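REQUEST FORM: STRUCTURE PREDICTION
Request ID: SP-0412
Submitted by: Lab K.M.
Chain count: 1
Length (residues): 636
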Amino acid sequence: MTMNKHTAVGMLASLILASGCGGSSGGGVTPPQNFDEACALVPDCAQPRYSDAEAKQGIYRVLVERDASGSIRIVSVDQAEVFAGDGVPLSNVGASHLLVGMDANGDQVDAQGLRFASALGLESLDDFKRVEIDLSDQSVNTVAYLEANEAIETLGVVDVDGNLLTVENLPQQARRKRAHTLKSDAQPAGHCAHVRILEGEADRFHAQNMAFYDDTVLLTPTPTQRAVIVAALNRMTPLMCHAVSRIAVGTVKNRGELNGAVAQIGGGDFMLINAGNLRYTENNLASFESVRVAMMRTILHEAGHALEALLNANSANPGDYGGHWTAANRSVASQTLDNVRLNVGLRDEWRRTHRAFASEDFAKLWANDGGPAREVVQEFSAMETAEAGFMSRYGGTGYTDDIAEMISWVYAAELYENAGIPEGRREKEDYACQLMRQHTETSVPGRLAAVYTKVMFLHDLGALHSEDVARCLGPHIGLATSNDGMHVHQGGSHQSSFEDQVEAVIGNTSSGELVFEMSAHGEANFGDNRYPALFRLQLDLLNQASQHEASYRANPPWPRGLYPLTSSSLNVLELRLDGEPAGDFDSTEGFVLVAEASNQRISGSIFLTKVWRPHAPVPVPEVYDPPLIIRFQISN
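STATUS: Completed
RESULT:
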């Protein structure tokens, strides 16, 4: 297989070659004759999960290319109709360029950041392998979106210094709306209405850097392939939809063993489903629900890669570009990225969160990060997988597939159940969900704390639907909190609650350390009396993030994950009694789990086994057996 450097290999911003493995011919089943017939076979095909009855607006879909020399050009522009407001896709986090729509005077009307792919990753889900191809010296292109404002006359691309690299007149044909519905031309609707399903080789210019190999051929999707693609998109949240721009079906000769290929670093908006084997043929898809479900989960897995690429802040994103150029603040950002303060990027915060669990033996590192070897992970049982902090065995190979597997299985587990594929079968690997559903108490056990926290992270981010998360978790696992504040339990009984003047803040200590602090007032027992008291929790926001200290200091996220309480760390729980300092204590042994963290709510649990009483007549340690369990929550 040779790389074709002479064809225009321009576009990619997450490329996926997804192929199935196994499966038998459908034999004897007449495939659907049109999209409507195929759509009737596939759950979620006919209707997006979010209502499409909201107001609509037009957007310009702009394909921008950076060639091998670094020159920028605008390749094509057309118009699509999306939901007003949060239907307009987000900019890339860490954008390297800005697409600008300008009026007749050259003033900005709208703008969106964009970023070009730098690597193409080829992955095989069957043997858990991944290879990467460097794209830094290749032509790459990506899609950016502008509101279809009548005032826009020209389009330009700006670099971070404010230099206008190229300017093109807005084509007149782009001003014409291309209205579509699921029933007329079988294109996506809802929050994924901007996504383009490519019509085979006729749309080759939309997939040219998919054609790195001479033997890649784009195919016109069959009715059932198209129905599965639409159904997968219809299951996605708005944020997930924003990560994907283009989906194609094709064949990749001599690559049928791959179950996925994705450009990890650079936009991640392009997906190619590899139908060049026996599994995802029209006959098999029409005949077997299990094959349709497998293809849908493959799409959701690769969309998880696309989301990670969209939200990776691996390059400077100043917000304001040189001069007067500024990226527009899309409304969905406040519902997702701003909601969890994810300015540091998904990759860094995901790795920090998981590594914090692993450092305290509540999880294992990924195979490519110093954890068990890939061959060992491949043989994990369901329990070993979940207790290592992963949704599936493949998620244990690296952080990128950890994210993608966590997303795809929460979305798709219900589909597998409806297809009659029971738990215990290797093809159904929502292992973490299976173990959490088996939990019978209202608590988060330490062995499942990592997977619980990571699922809630994706939910807080807006990547998962609440109903899918509830189905994954089951009826019991979670933190039982009622009112805001700190609620103390010991030995299964409630001791006291601190519910007054509940506050939380991110800031610096007197010595300049970046911390999160939560405080609450109430009353505490000491001896035979009760005293007014203050609980104060402080957490080190640079925990497991020292290599990214600058970005964390500039845009600190909410705390999330595991924080050990030791006498030598910045993580500390203090109790201060008004009128009886001998009852004061500082934590010296235990840990804090922050399971949910967003602008709406921060909640978690403190497991405290040992404290130091610094103001007793003779300062002494005190051991709690059974431990103190302190549930905490603050809303809005």
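NOTES: Residues 1-26, 179-184, 255-267, 314-320 have pLDDT under 50 and may be disordered.
Reviewed by: T.R.
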